[in-house]
Amino acid sequence: MTTDPLSPYAAALGTRRDELHPALQAYFRAVPRGQVGVGHGVFERVGCRSRVVRVLLGPVLHALERRGAVYAGWAEGVPFTVRNRDDGVRSAERTLHLPDGDWTMRDRVRPLPHGRIVDRLGRDGVLAAVFEVKASEGALALHSTRVGLRLGSRRIRFPRCIAPRIRLIESVGDGSGLQRVALTVDVPLLGRIHEYAGTFRYDIEEDA
To answer: CB within 10 Å: which end of the chain, N or C, has fewer?
Structure first.
């Protein structure tokens, strides 16, 4: 008897993956070798809304943007494309089709014990976050428990008192057939420093 391969998210959920909406159960199966999961949609908002925060954290945000980890600006109504591949980890590319050109965020996700995943974002995994993975009312819910930053060969873990708090919800819109993703990143004292939210359609295609 064979079973469907799992993405790191589904592996972290274990039997709780059956609580996801059927469309999400399909989304979180591993993409077969030689194929790619492709989504096309629109972000209602993406980036850092606060101009004050963009000024205060400008050098950091722009450095992370250059490494393909975080979009440093603020934009609304942005078309995007996501491409997922699985090879024991899930590799994702989310390309924002911005007015001044495309920008791509890259990450790699692998499972950890005890219902967790680790997500390494950007070139060389410049940012890394450990998440607890839960199913909630048919949606997938992530919240960070640890966040770290790579500086050269060193990985620095943020102390809990100042660590960014990252939350992500993947859900399916009622009746629309669209998949919805919403992420927020909040930092103590500074507030919200990054977010994105949007909807997309997703299919499995042959990998070119």
So the answer is: N
pLDDT (average), residues 165-184: 91
More confident residue, 173 or 38: 38
Q: Which of 68, 138, 142 is nearest to 111 (CA)?
A: 142
Q: Say how many C-beta atoms besides its own lie within 10 A of residue 171's C-beta.
A: 21
DSSP lists the bridge partners of residue 128 as 120, 148
Give me the percent of the chain exceeding a pLDDT of 70: 98
Identify whether the C-beta of residue 127 lies closer than 8 Å to the C-beta of residue 70: yes
Can you tell me which residue has the tokens 């995994």? 125
Report the run of H or E that residue 58 belongs to, with start and end: helix 58-66
For residue 32, the cross-strand partners are none
pLDDT for residue 141 is more than 60 = yes
